[in-house]
Amino acid sequence: MNGVAHNANKETQVISPRHPRKLLAIACLAIAPMTFAGPDKSIELEFLSSYVQPDPAAAFDESAAEIVAFDKRSERLFVTNGNDKTIDIISISDPAAPVLVGSINVTNNPDFGSFVGGGANSVAVYKGLVAVAVENDTVTDPGRAAFFDTDGKLISIVEVGALPDMITFTPKGKEALVANEGEPDGGIDPEGSVSIIHLDDGAENAWVSTADFNDFDGYADELRDDGVRLFPEVAIPPLVEGQITVSQDLEPEYIGVDSKGRTAYVTLQEANALAIVDIKGGEVVDIVSLGTKDHNTAGNGLDPSDKDDGIAIGEWPVLGMYMPDAIDCYKPKGKGKRKGKKEFCITANEGDDRGDADGDARGDAIRFKDIGDVISFGRGGLEASSALEALGVGEDEALGRLNISSIDGIDEEGKLDQLYSYGTRSFTIWDEDGERVWDSGDALEQITAEAFPEYFNASNDANEDDGMPAIDDRSDNKGPEPEAVTISKIRGEYYAFIGLERIGGFVVYNVSDPEDPFFVLYENTRDFSAGNDLVEAGLAGDFGPESILVIEKKDSPLKGTALVVVANEVSGSTTIYALEELKKGKGKDNK
Q1: For 234-254, how does the pLDDT look when each residue is reduced to its tens digit (9 = 90+)?
Q2: Residue 297: Cβ-neighbour burial (10 angstroms; 0-12, 13-18, 19+)
Q3: pLDDT(59) > 70
Q4: Who's near 372: CB < 8 A, 6+ residues apart?
Q5: Which of 118, 150, 172, 472 is the most buried (most CB within 10 A)?
């Protein structure tokens, strides 16, 4: 039943962006963490262990570790395991030696009555109460939120919307919130919504209210005018065959909650928008377009080609759609211009599409050079406008292979006039009104390029490509692909941890000043020296970080030391670091 716990005992390479490379000997075993360090010296990470699935090869690329939550009383991690369709219960009483102590059945659990689950998509914990978002075996039917104790005993189960994708508690645990994505399947397109589960009288007496988008169904044109990305078949009721409503088109992905537990900020990834939910009132009060990022300006560049023979981050005539996945919120204190006055949210701008425009009836994604092959939404190919043609950027080494949207940037003549790409290869800080405050620009590609030049923009399932290092594999499609984000307060400073789904690892930024964050470190436990045979056997470290958790030192099983836990979807591993607090960072003067 137990998996494998790897401890550390190798060298760690520490690279400074402003100083020559140097090697620092750190006690490690089996996995050699790579730390790319900035000039801020307020925190350091030490690799402690990694819980690996009992059969790593069978678990590889099967979503065996996606979302992780922690209970301080039992000193247990709860990890969604898409391979086994369970919740793994892992004891970290000794963080250097994690042990699988049980699992929670979320499919054919006899305590679920007639409900048959299709798997767990998310898990959260509040004071010993474990909440799990369970999709229906028929994915377009209503899912469930199930509540368990830390031994996996069911307390209660309530109905939520279709395809519950994320579950979280409000700060005081009075509510659990669920983002119901409602993706279409088999010709059925459920409505997206947010379930608000009320827990004032305990989980045994939980009841549900729903914040839906029905009030916006009559305002499709206004939402489009405001920049909300709705698909071509979205129309205002009454509908005709082939049309859908705004409620059906919007797909809630992830939820951030303000410090008071009053407002939820919900990412609508494919719509490139943010929904603002009044939790007490149980309604969506606004939908805010997140706009676009101009990759043709200094500091906002990207490498758009996997055929340009290396690292080529530059300015290109492309607008990036933020399309965030994860979101987390915080309220920094202090005397600064914005500190202490507003809530802020940080998004990991992954990007997402709904299929291939040259093969799927509702697909939107296509390589720029293949726009003539677009068949989705009844089209018979696209043409580039004369203005776009005049730019001369259609070669493979330029923008020809870039994955773009086929439904955005269309002019009045029905021609493609502007390139829109998925995600912005960055993370962004937004204020409580959804206004952009700060964006990391091209820093994530710059950091990973300097840390791993031979594996820049590598994918998350291979180290080699035709016998050569897998450089550039994802440059044409979302680059490092920021996926996860969590914010933690450490010695009075706020830090954002951003997981990079493709090349792997995570960056840490000090975000205490929302208008002027700075880079702290980049950590990666992927073994780039391993061949693809070892990668696919699950024996090459961590691949595909899906979620990150920071356990504060007051809650940590390792007395006086905070922990960072990363669930890695592709390798199926759950990795634990000790977070050592050094001297307090100096903010701007320490950059």
Answers
A1: 999 999 999 999 999 999 999
A2: exposed
A3: yes
A4: 381, 382, 383
A5: 472
Dihedral Cα 356, 362, 365, 369, nearest 10 deg: 80
Q: How many whole angstroms separate alpha carbon 430 and alpha carbon 439?
A: 9
Determine the 3-state secondary structure of 427 from DSSP: strand
CA distance 170 to 145: 15
Confidence of residue 339 (pLDDT cuts 50, 70, 90): low
- Lowest-confidence range among 37-41, 155-159, 220-224, 440-444? 37-41
DSSP β-bridge partners for residue 265:
256, 276
Closest among 452, 537, 553 to 500, alpha carbons compared? 452
SS3 116: coil
Among 208, 76, 205, 94, smallest CA distance to 149 is for 76
Q: Which helix (H) or strand (E) holds 59?
A: helix 56-59
pLDDT number for residue 39: 78
| pLDDT > 80? residue 30 | no
Calpha distance 367→75 (Å, rounded): 47
Residue 12 has pLDDT above 60, yes or no: no
Cα(372)–Cα(366) distance, integer angstroms = 10
Average pLDDT rounded to a whole number, residues 166-194:
98
Omega of the bond prior to 238 within 30 degrees of 0, cis? yes
3-state helix, strand, coil in the chain (%, to 5): 10, 40, 50
Confidence of residue 36 (pLDDT cuts 50, 70, 90): confident
Distance CA 342, CA 339 (A): 7
Q: What pLDDT does 581 receive?
A: 92
> H or E segment at 376?
none
The single-letter code of the amino acid at 444 is L
Number of CB atoms found within 10 A of residue 200's CB: 10
The predicted pLDDT at position 590 comes to: 42
Q: How many residues does the chain have?
A: 591
What gap in Å lies between CA 367 and CA 476, rounded to an integer?
9
* 487-492 own/partner pairs: CB under 8 Å, 24+ apart: 487/328, 487/329, 487/330, 487/346, 487/511, 488/550, 488/552, 488/562, 489/330, 489/552, 490/42, 490/43, 490/562, 490/579, 490/581, 491/42, 491/581, 491/584, 492/584
CA pair distance 160, 192, nearest whole angstrom: 11
CB 75 within 8 A of CB 557: yes
pTM here is 0.93
Residue 375 Cα distances to 185, 267, 372, 441, angstroms: 20, 29, 9, 34
Strands (E) across 454-536 are located at 464-465, 468-469, 482-490, 493-500, 506-510, 518-524
Band (18; pLDDT cuts 50, 70, 90): very low
Q: How confident is the model at residue 14 (pLDDT cuts 50, 70, 90)?
A: very low
Query: Could you tell me what percent of the chain has a pLDDT over 90?
Result: 89
Q: Is the dihedral of CA 110, 78, 428, 363 positive or negative?
A: negative
pLDDT at 17: 27
Short-list 379, 377, 353, 385, CA closest to 366: 353
